[in-house]
C-alpha cells in the first residue's frame, strides 16, 4: 500500500470512529498519557493541538496544565514552511492560526530538549516510522534540531493516536525519522 492509500484508509477509519467509542478511546489515551507523564516527570511537554478527526489532545493539555503545573508546555506553530514550539500556560494562550488550528501566540520559540514530544500522524508502523500529512514539518524540525536518533536531546518522541493507526510495516524514506514510542488508548508501545 502506498503512503497516499494509507493516508486515505486511515482518514476514513478515523472519520468512522464517533460517539461513545471515540470518547472512551480518547479518555483512555489521556489517562495513559497522564500516568506516563507522572512517572516520567519530564521538564517539558511538547504536544500537538489536534484538529479534524485526530485523537483529541485538548483534554490532555487541560489536564497537564491543571494536574502537572511543574511541567512546562510548548505547542507548535507553523511559520511558512517551518514549525517552532512556543510556551503555552493555558487555553487562552492559544488562538486559531492560518490553517484553523489552535496555535500559541508566544514571541520566543522554545527549543525542544529534555522532554516528551507528541507527534501527530495518520499511521505508525512497528519500527516507529509514521505517515503524516505530507508537509514534513516534524521531520524537518527533527533534522534541524538534531532529534533524528532515539531520545536525541533528551526528547522522547511519541506518536499519539488510536490503536488502529498502528500498522505492521510501511515504506520509509531516507528523511523519515522513527519515533521512540506510540501512545494509544491501549497504552504505550516502545519501538526498537
Write a concise synopsis of the structure shown.
The protein is α/β, with parallel strands linked by helices.
Q: For this structure, what is the CATH homologous superfamily?
A: NagB/RpiA/CoA transferase-like
- The strands making up the biggest β-sheet line up spatially as 3-2-1-6-9-11-12
- Rg, nearest Å: 15 Å
The rounded distance between the terminal residues' Cα atoms is 23 Å
CATH architecture tag:
3-Layer(aba) Sandwich
The helicity comes to: 25-40%
For the sheet with most strands, the description reads: 7 strands, mixed
Tell me, rounded to a whole number, the average pLDDT. Answer: 94
CATH topology: Rossmann fold
Helix and strand composition category: alpha/beta
Order of helices and strands: HHEHEEEEEEEHEEEE
The fraction of residues in strands falls at: 25-35%
| Overall tally of structural domains | 1
CATH class: Alpha Beta
Low-confidence stretches: none
Given the C-alpha coordinates, what overall shape results?
globular
Strand tally, please?
Answer: 12
H/I helix tally: 4
Describe what you observe in this structure.
A hairpin with a 2-residue loop joins strand 2 and strand 3 (82-87). The chain has helices at residues 3-16, 19-40, 58-67, 137-144, and strands at 44-46, 72-79, 82-87, 94-96, 102-104, 115-119, 123-125, 130-131, 155-160, 166-167, 181-184, 187-190. Helix 2 (19-40) packs parallel to helix 3. It is built from four helices and twelve strands. The longest helix has 22 residues, at 19-40. It has 192 residues and is α/β, with parallel strands linked by helices. The strands form three sheets. The protein has a seven-stranded mixed sheet with strand order 3-2-1-6-9-11-12, sandwiched between helices. It has a three-stranded mixed sheet with strand order 8-7-10, covered by helices on one side. The chain has one domain: NagB/RpiA/CoA transferase-like (Rossmann fold, 3-Layer(aba) Sandwich).
Amino acid at each position: 500500500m502506498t503512503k497516499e492509500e494509507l493516508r486515505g484508509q486511515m482518514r476514513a477509519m478515523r472519520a468512522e470512529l464517533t460517539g461513545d467509542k471515540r470518547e472512551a478511546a480518547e479518555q483512555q489515551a489521556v489517562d495513559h498519557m497522564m500516568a506516563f507523564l507522572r512517572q516520567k516527570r519530564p521538564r517539558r511537554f511538547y504536544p500537538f493541538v489536534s484538529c479534524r478527526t485526530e485523537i483529541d489532545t485538548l483534554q490532555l493539555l487541560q489536564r497537564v496544565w491543571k494536574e502537572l503545573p511543574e511541567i512546562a508546555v510548548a505547542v507548535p506553530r507553523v511559520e511558512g514552511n517551518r514549525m517552532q514550539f512556543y510556551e503555552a500556560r493555558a487555553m487562552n494562550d492559544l488562538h486559531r492560526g492560518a490553517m484553523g488550528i489552535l496555535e500559541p501566540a508566544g514571541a520566543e520559540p522554545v527549543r525542544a530538549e529534555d522532554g516528551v514530544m507528541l507527534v501527530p500522524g495518520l499511521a505508525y508502523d512497528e519500527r516507529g516510522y509514521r505517515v503524516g500529512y505530507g508537509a514534513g514539518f516534524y521531520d524537518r524540525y527533527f533534522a534541524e534540531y538534531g532529534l533524528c536518533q532515539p531520545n536525541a536531546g533528551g526528547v522522547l518522541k511519541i506518536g499519539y493516536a488510536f490503536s488502529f493507526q498502528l500498522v505492521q510495516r510501511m515504506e520509509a524514506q531516507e528523511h523519515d525519522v522513527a519515533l521512540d514510542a506510540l501512545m494509544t488508548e491501549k497504552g504505550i508501545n516502545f519501538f526498537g
